[in-house]
Each structure stands twice: as C-alpha cells, then as structure tokens.
C-alpha cells in the first residue's frame, strides 16, 4: 500500500468493523483529510482496526486533475445502484448524475441534479444479490456520476477518503453497518408518526382552531397541526404576531385538549435590526457568518436583510439552543427548520457566497470558507435545534423537521422531499424519493402529500393520500395562493378515501413504531424497495409502484390512467397474502403480507394519545410454506427516555401450524414493562382478503382450529366476491370537481412528452404552450425545468415582459412521430388576440438528432380590413429561462457580428446586444462544472436583439424579432435550434 501521487489504485485500511474499508490516494492524503462530519465518532474513521479477516473486493482507482480528485470503482455487469440521498427521478440510479450541493429547488423535476440535501452515498446491489455501500466522505460539492453502466465515478475537491461497506449478504446488512458509522435515526415520539396537517399558511389562531375542530368533527385521524412562517411578527424568528397569534400558549393548550400537537417554523435568517433581541444577542456574542473581509454577511430572505448564525461554532450552536429552549416554553411541541440550505433571495446562486467565512470548531474542520461547510449548514442547525429542545425538557423526545441535510442528519431530525408539485409525476416520484432517503440512512421521510405547488385534483389528492399514509413521515402541505388542500377540500368521495387511508395508517401504527425502534437501535430501514424481498430478481430492481414496510408490501397505482386492480401486480417470489380492513377501494393501495410474518394492528384511533395499553391487540398472521410465522411488537411510553433504562416491552410472537390447529404464542420478551391485560385478536390470513379469526388473552397460548380444505376454499371464494363487489361499487373520486380554476393553477394535467434523438422535452399546451423541461439524455442534464404556469420556455408577442402569448391556451394542431425530414414534431398555435396567432413548431431533426429546433411565428389570420390588413405593433420575443446547475461556474459566451468575443458572467447583470454586437448566429450557456455548453443557433436575419438576464439560479437567453405590424403575407419569424457541446 505504497503512497500514490497523480493516479493509480487507492490505498486502504480496515476501520470500524469487518468488511469496512477506508481508501485514500496516499498516506499524505490520509493524514491531511478533514475531520469527518458524517461519522458519529470521527475518530472511528481515522483509526484502523487490527486483525481484519477480510480484504476489499473492489479497490477504487483515482486521478487528480485541476484540483479535483476523481475516483472510479468498477463492478460486474448487471450491477444496480441506489441511494444518493434526496434525489428525484427513478429508483435505480444507473444513467444518472447528481451533484451534492444543497439547493432551494422549488418545483424540481425528475432531472434536477441538486436538491435540498446531500448524501454522497451509493448503495450497490451486485448481480448475485450481495450489496456494498460507498461513501465519499467529503462535505464539499461532489459529483456522483453513474452514467456508465456498473461504474461509480466520484469527483470532488482534493482530497477526501472513500469508505466502502461490504460486500455483505444483503442491502439490509450494508445499511446496518453504515448506520453504525454515521448514526441511527433518533427515536421519534409516537405522536410524530401520526398524520400531520400543514399549510403556508394557517394565518391566524382562529383558522388553526377551525382546522383542528374540522378534523375531529369529520372523524379524520390527525395528530399535528403546523404553523408556517406567517405566525411570526414580520418574519422575525422566535416572535409571534400579536394580532393573529396573540396567545400561543392558549392556542396550544386548546390543541392539546383536542389531541393535537403544534409544530412551529424557525429559519436561519435573522432580521438585521437593532432592538430585535435575537439580532442584538447574536451580535454581542459574535456568532454571525462572515464575509471574506470579516464582516457579518447580510443576505435577503423573508424578513428582508438578514444575518446568519455560524453553526460551525459550538458557541453559536449553544446560543441557538438556548433560544430554542426559551421558545419551547410557549407550548411548542416540535420545530420545523426551513430555508437552511441556506437559501438566500436575489442572488444567482440561491445561497450565500462560497467565499464567506465560517470560524468552525477544530473538530469540524476549523476556519473554512462556505464551500466547505455549505452542505452541513442545515444539519448543524438541526443539531442545535434538537439540543435546544432537549435542554427545554429532558423527559421529552425532540421532534425536528429539517429541509436541508447531510449524511448523519437522521441523528437529529426528520425530513421531507421539499417543494414538490401537484402532478401525477410527483406522486409517482414520491415512492422512490422516500425509499431512496431510507436507503441513504434517513428513514423518517416523506413527501408533501397532494403536492406543495399548484392545485391537486380530487383524484390526484385521494390517490396520493392512499400512498402517503403508508410513508414513515406523513404530512399534507400546500403553498399559499392554491386551493385548500385539507382532506375534506375535494368533495365527499375524496374525503372518504382520505379518512379510510388515515384509519389504515393508525391501524398499522404499532408496526410503524416497532420498525422505528429497530431503525433506532439497529439501523434497519423502515421503508424499503420491493426488491429487498428478493435481491436476485433483476426485474424487481426497477419496480417503483410498490414498497415495503417491514414484511408489509404496499402496492399502489400512481398514474392518472392506471387502475390498480387492472394492473398486473409484480410480487417477489414466495407467499404473499393480500388483505384489507374491509376497506378496499380502487384509489387505495393493495396490501400484501409476506408469508412467515406477523404484524401488530391497533384500533383506528383519532390520534395517538387516544390509545390505551389495554386496547385490543390484533395480530395479522401469514404462514410460510412450512406453516410458521414470526413478528415483533415494540411498546413503551410513546415519549421520553425510560426505554433506554429498560422501560419498554418487546414481544416476539410465533405462530405454527400443528396438524389441524395453528398455535400462536409469545416466544420471547425484552424489557421491564408489565404486559397489559388486554384481549388478543388473531387474524390468520388465507389470501384474497379471507381470514380465520380467533380471540384470546395477550401473553397466553391461543390455538386456532383450521377448517377442512373445502371450507377454506369456500371462505376464500366468498371473500374474493365481497372484495370484488366493494371495489366495483366503490364511490370513485372524480378526476376534477370543476372548481379548481378560481385560485392558483391546476398542474395535474399530463404534459406532452417528446423523446427523440438526444432530447426529452415536456410541453404544456394548456398554459402558454411552454416547454417546462428540456433534458439532454446523453449527459443526463436538465437544462430547463420550470413550473407549469410561469417560466420555462415561453414566447411573448410584445416587448413587454409576459405580454400576450405566454399564458393563453394553445391547441395541438399536429403531432408526428416521424414526419418527412423530422424525427418527431409538435405543432401548436395560440390565439393572442386582434386576429393574431402565435404558431410554434418543435421538432427533432432526423438528419441530426443531437439538435432540436423551434420555429415560431406571429401570423395575421383575421385582421380587420379597416386596419389595412395590418395588425397592431408586435414583437416576437423568445424567453427561455435556463437553470444554472453550477451558478458560479456558468457564463454566456459568443462571438459578435463585428468579431468581438464576449463572456457574460452572472455578476454583470442584464445586458442587451443590438446591431453588430449581436451574436453572429449562435451563443452558448457554458457550465464549466459539467464541461458542457448549451448552444443556441439562430438566423441573424430574424433576430434584432439578444438579451441576457441573470436571475436566482437561472439565466434568460432571449431572442427578439423586429417590432412591427404583421399581415397575412408578412409574419414575424424566429427559427432557432439547441444542441449540447463538450467544452475543453
């Protein structure tokens, strides 16, 4: 293991436990590595173990290039990749590339490469079913490139160690080993596993009380109501608006009496205002993040100009913790840390400058610029918040939700998948996203049910609630200026589906709580992909319509035109018995229990505290091929830390068929809790929702007589008929209630997809005919991604911003999969008034599929004779808004007509080019981080002006025609094309 200089194999040493290895480029690199923030105990990563029994099966190679350390690890063909943390898109990650850079990614898409959290971690599933974990232990921006089959490529600033875990017999073993390194999830209070209702914003305590009262009146289970940022006084953290929330203690007391908990938001941005006690005390303690010249950095967020705590300092973390401790005295049950990437307004990077200085503790890495600590800023904030809640009451378990995170965040906080959209695509993505976080060490996660941005339709919301009620973290949330998104907001049919879905969740809450106990103590994930049941089944590895809660398989329909009971349900090998609670519905997932399993079930309470230890306990039993089954139930106080002193009861139940009976008994117990005196209800599953039921006393042996085979067949047939009748006669949720247009925008229509050549485009004809996604398939780069109703690629008919053309409904005139001369084309037109039509043809060239083109024209179709056949004054203004994946490494470049060369960087602001300063037929958006440029080619005879405008994480490259009236014989045209080129 000799030292290496520029390239070669990495050197290794065993750490932590058998089959865990640390790799470095050289001995010098090993000694110079920054302390680990991922590991619970950083010394473990830096201390080799003695007498290892194994050597690595896969040794990475490395190369150093322009200050970057490039690591490659080769695996056998048919290897599958998972993990990579909070990522959108597909479950199996082959073909994908992501960048770990925490980003405020409102309305992200399937191709967005950086979201709110960073997990430089890959779970590798080998063809034989064994698994390996790979961690790039760096806090800096890291490229995870999985585009080459069976190969991992990691790129980040030199130098950093790579840690591998395995190979182990199963991915569960890998994740358990990983958790022993980076920490296991905190044990949540049981109420945190109930349903949460949120909105930006419930704008007064009266509205909060109304929401709580409606849940109870309608008997829809719920445990938590959330207060978004508008409860504050002028968005000042740790304050309350005196008019709208005059007495938070009284509000919380009322909520507690109704069985609700209250969670309140805290952001990192502190208003820069003398006399505001939080700002004053932070300034006195000198805890603000600094600029490169040593002054407190000021960036704009919700309150206006703000300063930001430097959580890399222990004194800053303690200062924040003490503020949280005092804040809890208002009756706060949990805290929501938002905007902690940290997000900053009115800056192209969406965050603070990378040159900012953090005066970090030595054990974190010491004084470093922001690029070193950016990805852990949110985790350190969550850690401080968690500590503050513990300081407030050591006998209560804290509950913190964080938007930004890093490897290890699960030790302090839950998370959610950020500002998603109310679309079917995002409903479908919510399964792989929640699963992927669990495969990256963060089991307490879930999406905003129903979608955060835009208006869900009744069918979309109901279907999403059915799936979301099975996720570890279960919260409905929506943004302002949308229709109400509470379960009763979409009509009676949707309300009933939501009620049933949440009753299901509360029935299986004992299972979920038990799974969290094992996640907390052993690092076993709560939700897993279906292939965990058979890691050798290659087809299951890409399956995204189902997932598992322990041995419970949840099978959902997540497509607008998907009918659950018309789909073929792909199940793992072995015995899988379907069941329900006599509540099957076409818009609710199907449930299967794995043979050999027992799961605990409770009555469907309205909230967690309504349950008592003496409630009837039900066990669902599915025997395996040997006639046996086993399962566990974990119980404790539901809060506090007595469980760490033995104050709990962990029961292992065992069932076995013996001749004509099935015997159910307790086979093992742990903990000092006394078993409650309660009835035991055993339901022996037969399949097709049929079951044999028996009652007894918990803790005592229960013998269940088994009917003759012919009787069992009759039971199954009768149950199948009843289930089919329920499904066929269920009151279906309507696709739309026809009342969503009055406020906000309906996002749930399906965009038109064009996938041809090198490009995947998504077009929404019904609002402006805009392109909302522009993905280059060979590089996996989504150059453009936007919400449906604004931004993206749009066109205007005047020089004014958002003039006619960008919001009208367009008609699809023609769509051809293969036209003469084109590989695929889409023709649209929209009426922009005054007898004018804006026509647009989007096509991929057959001759050169690397290019896609757009031919646009403003044409006069019905211009009145009184105007001489000429229209009003118009200008065709092409307005694409491209996303910047690496804002500080992106610029616009071109050669002008006069031969001058131009590079326009974000700090140059808006620039307009006319005359001979116009690009000479092409200009390009260069991303040095990607090594790629998006090139826009156009006819200089049609383009009179070119405009560059830098936004927050975006840039517009606009093409303007001349401004003049048009007639039938003389339309305005702009014909242009896009292609991607590699740059040196």
Number of strands: 59
Number of helices: 14
Helix content estimate: 10-25%
Output the structural class.
Answer: alpha+beta
The shape is: globular
Strand content: 25-35%
Q: Mind telling me the C-alpha Rg?
A: 29 Å
How is this structure best described in words?
This protein is α+β, with helices and mostly antiparallel strands and 984 residues long. The chain is 17% helix and 33% strand. It has 14 helices and 59 strands. The strands form 12 sheets. It has a 9-stranded parallel β-sheet. A 9-stranded antiparallel β-sheet has the order 47-48-49-50-59-56-55-52-53, with no helix packed on it. The protein has a 6-stranded antiparallel β-sheet with strand order 1-4-5-12-11-7, with no helix packed on it. The longest helix is centred in the last third of the chain and has 20 residues, at 709-728.
Summarize the model shown.
The chain is an alpha+beta fold and 984 residues long.
Layout of helices and strands, plus pairs?
Blueprint: E1 7-9, E2 11-14, E3 20-24, H1 27-32, H2 42-46, E4 61-65, E5 68-74, E6 80-83, E7 97-100, E8 117-118, E9 121-125, E10 131-136, E11 142-145, E12 151-157, E13 162-168, H3 171-182, E14 195-197, H4 205-217, E15 224-227, H5 248-257, E16 261-266, E17 270-271, H6 277-284, E18 299-301, E19 304-307, H7 314-328, E20 334-337, E21 357-359, E22 367-369, H8 370-373, H9 377-392, E23 400-402, E24 405-406, E25 414-416, H10 424-438, E26 445-446, E27 448-449, H11 458-468, E28 474-476, H12 492-507, H13 509-522, E29 527-529, E30 546-549, E31 552-555, E32 576-579, E33 590-594, E34 597-601, E35 617-622, E36 628-635, E37 649-658, E38 661-670, E39 679-687, E40 690-697, E41 702-705, H14 709-728, E42 752-756, E43 759-764, E44 770-776, E45 781-785, E46 793-796, E47 810-816, E48 822-833, E49 836-845, E50 852-860, E51 874-883, E52 890-895, E53 901-904, E54 911-914, E55 922-927, E56 932-938, E57 945-950, E58 954-964, E59 972-982
Helix pairs in contact: 4-5, 7-9, 10-11, 11-12
């Amino acid at each position: 293991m000799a030292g290496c200089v520029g390239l070669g194999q990495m050197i290794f040493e065993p750490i932590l436990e058998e089959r865990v290895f640390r790799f470095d480029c050289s001995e010098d690199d090993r000694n110079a590595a920054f302390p680990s923030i991922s590991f619970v105990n950083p010394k473990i990563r830096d201390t080799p173990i003695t007498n290892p029994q194994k050597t690595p099966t896969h040794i990475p190679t490395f190369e150093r290039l322009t200050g970057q350390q490039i690591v490659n690890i080769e695996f056998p063909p048919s290897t599958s990749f998972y993990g990579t943390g909070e990522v959108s898109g597909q479950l199996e990650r082959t073909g994908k590339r992501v960048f770990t850079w925490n980003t405020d990614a409102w309305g992200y898409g399937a191709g967005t490469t950086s979201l709110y959290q960073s997990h430089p971690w890959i779970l590798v599933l080998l063809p034989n079913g064994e698994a390996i974990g790979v961690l790039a232990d760096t806090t800096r921006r890291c490229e995870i490139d999985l585009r080459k089959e069976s190969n991992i490529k990691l790129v980040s600033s030199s130098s950093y160690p790579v840690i591998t875990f395995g190979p182990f017999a199963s991915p569960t073993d890998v994740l358990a080993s990983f958790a022993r390194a980076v920490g296991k999830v905190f044990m949540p209070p049981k109420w945190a596993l109930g349903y949460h209702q949120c909105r930006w914003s419930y704008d007064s305590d009266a509205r909060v009380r109304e929401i709580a009262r409606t849940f109870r009146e309608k008997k829809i289970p719920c445990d938590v109501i959330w207060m978004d940022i508008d409860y504050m006084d002028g968005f000042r953290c740790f304050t309350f608006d005196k008019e709208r929330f005059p007495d938070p203690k009284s509000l919380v007391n009322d909520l507690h009496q109704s069985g609700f908990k209250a969670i309140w938001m805290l952001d990192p941005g502190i208003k820069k205002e003398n006399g505001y006690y939080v700002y004053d005390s932070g300034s006195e303690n000198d805890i603000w993040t600094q600029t490169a010249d040593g002054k407190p950095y000021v960036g704009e967020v919700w309150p206006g100009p703000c300063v930001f705590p430097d959580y890399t300092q222990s004194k800053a973390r303690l200062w924040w913790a003490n503020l949280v401790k005092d804040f809890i005295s208002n009756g706060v049950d949990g805290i929501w840390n938002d905007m902690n990437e940290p997000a900053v307004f009115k800056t192209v990077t969406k965050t603070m400058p990378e040159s900012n200085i953090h005066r970090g503790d030595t054990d974190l890495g010491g004084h470093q610029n922001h690029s070193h600590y950016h990805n852990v800023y949110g985790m350190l904030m969550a850690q401080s918040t968690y500590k503050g809640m513990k300081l407030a009451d050591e006998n209560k378990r804290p509950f913190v939700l964080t938007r930004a995170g890093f490897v290890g965040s699960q030790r302090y906080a839950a998370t959610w998948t950020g500002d998603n959209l109310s679309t079917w695509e995002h409903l479908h993505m919510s399964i792989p996203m929640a699963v992927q976080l669990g495969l990256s060490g963060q089991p307490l996660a879930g999406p905003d049910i129903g979608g955060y941005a835009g208006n869900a339709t009744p069918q979309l919301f109901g279907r999403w609630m059915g799936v979301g009620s099975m996720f570890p973290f279960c919260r409905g949330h929506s943004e302002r200026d949308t229709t109400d998104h509470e379960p009763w907001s979409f009509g009676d049919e949707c309300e009933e589906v939501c009620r049933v879905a949440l009753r299901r969740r509360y029935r299986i809450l004992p299972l979920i709580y038990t799974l969290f106990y094992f996640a907390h103590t052993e690092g076993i994930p709560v939700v897993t992909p279906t292939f965990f049941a058979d890691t050798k089944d290659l087809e299951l590895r890409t399956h995204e319509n189902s997932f598992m809660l322990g041995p419970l398989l949840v099978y959902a329909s997540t497509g607008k035109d998907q009918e659950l009971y018309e789909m073929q349900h792909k199940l793992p090998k072995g015995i899988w018995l379907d069941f329900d609670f006599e509540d099957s519905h076409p818009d609710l997932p199907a449930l299967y229990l794995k043979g050999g399993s027992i799961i605990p079930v409770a009555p469907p309470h309205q909230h967690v505290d309504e349950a008592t230890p003496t409630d009837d306990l039900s066990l669902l039993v599915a025997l395996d091929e040997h006639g046996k089954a086993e399962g566990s139930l974990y119980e404790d106080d539901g809060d506090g830390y007595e469980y760490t002193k033995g104050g709990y009861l962990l029961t292992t139940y065992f069932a076995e068929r013996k001749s004509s009976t099935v015997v159910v008994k307790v086979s093992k117990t742990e903990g000092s809790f006394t078993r409650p005196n309660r009835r035991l209800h055993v339901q022996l599953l037969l399949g097709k929702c049929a079951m044999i039921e028996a009652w007894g006393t918990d803790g005592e042996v229960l013998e269940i007589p088994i009917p003759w085979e012919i009787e069992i067949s009759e039971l199954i047939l009768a149950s199948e008929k009843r289930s089919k009748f329920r499904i066929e006669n269920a009151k279906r949720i309507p696709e739309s209630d026809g009342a969503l247009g009055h406020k906000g925008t309906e996002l749930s229509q399906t965009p038109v997809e064009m996938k041809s050549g090198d490009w995947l485009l998504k077009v929404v004809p019904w609002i402006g005919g805009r392109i909302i996604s522009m993905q280059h398939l060979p590089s996996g780069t989504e150059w453009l991604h936007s919400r449906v109703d604004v931004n993206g690629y749009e066109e205007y008919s005047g020089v004014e911003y958002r003039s006619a053309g960008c919001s009208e409904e367009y008609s699809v005139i023609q769509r051809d999969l293969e036209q003469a001369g084109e590989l695929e084309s889409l023709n649209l037109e929209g009426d922009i008034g005054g007898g004018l039509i804006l026509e647009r043809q989007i096509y991929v060239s057959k001759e050169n599929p690397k290019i896609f083109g757009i031919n646009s024209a403003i044409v006069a179709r019905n211009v009145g004779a009184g105007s001489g056949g000429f229209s009003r004054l118009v200008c065709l203004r092409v307005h694409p808004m491209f996303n910047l994946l690496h804002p500080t490494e992106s610029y616009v470049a071109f050669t002008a007509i006069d031969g001058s060369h131009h590079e326009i960087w974000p700090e140059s602001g808006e620039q307009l080019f006319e005359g001979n300063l116009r690009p000479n037929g092409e200009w390009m958006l260069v991303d040095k981080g990607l090594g790629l440029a998006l090139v826009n080619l156009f006819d200089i005879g049609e383009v009179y002006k070119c405009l560059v405008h830098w936004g927050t994480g975006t840039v517009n490259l606009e093409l303007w025609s001349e401004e003049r009236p048009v007639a039938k014989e003389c339309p305005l045209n702009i014909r242009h094309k896009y292609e991607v080129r590699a740059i040196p």
